[in-house]
Amino acid sequence: MEILTKDARPEAELFLDLAFDPIELVAIYFRCRVFEKSKVEITAIAKTIGTPISFFEMRDERIRFKLTSVPMHS
Questions:
Q1: For the chain, what is the largest distance between any 2 Cα atoms, rounded to a whole number of angstroms?
Q2: Cβ 40 vs Cβ 68: under 8 Å
Q3: Of the candidates 41, 14, 10, 16, which has an alpha carbon nearest to the alpha carbon of residue 28?
Q4: How many alpha carbons lie under 13 Å from residue 24 in its C-beta half-sphere?
Q5: Is the separation of the CB atoms in 31 and 56 below 8 Å?
Q6: Are 41 and 47 in contact, with CB atoms under 8 Å apart?
Q7: 9-18, 20-29, 31-40 — which is least confidently predicted?
Q8: Region 13-34 average pLDDT
Q9: Burial (0-12, 13-18, 19+ Cβ within 10 Å), 3
Q10: Does the pLDDT of residue 65 top 60, yes or no?
Q11: Cα(23)–Cα(51) distance, rounded to whole angstroms?
């Protein structure tokens, strides 16, 4: 499996793919206002890995100007 990440090197492309062992994936955090279809698709793919993965949604707390992670129930 691969994960997409921002490449910090100035001369590099904007993003790069990093290989990782799927067993290392323990949690997925969905950004605020992510499309429901995307959450369903990503969750379904992640569940095929066969290891326990926790899923979280980020919530915008406008009064306190912070993001809070809320567990998703699957």
A1: 42
A2: no
A3: 41
A4: 7
A5: no
A6: no
A7: 9-18
A8: 83
A9: exposed
A10: yes
A11: 6
Q: Do residues 62 and 69 lie in contact, with contact meaning Cβ atoms separated by under 8 Å?
A: no
Q: How far is CA 44 from the centre of its chain?
A: 13
Take residue 20 and report the two structure tokens written for it. 């990782």
Indicate the average pLDDT of the chain. Answer: 82
Q: Which tokens belong to 53?
A: 């993965």
For the chain, give every domain's residue range: 23-74
Q: How does DSSP assign 13-67, residue by residue?
A: -SEEEEE--GGG--EEEEPTT--HHHHHHHHHHHHTT-S--EEEEEEEETTTTEE
H or E element, residue 73: none
Hey, what amino acid is at 44?
A: A
Look up tokens 């790069």; give the residue: 16
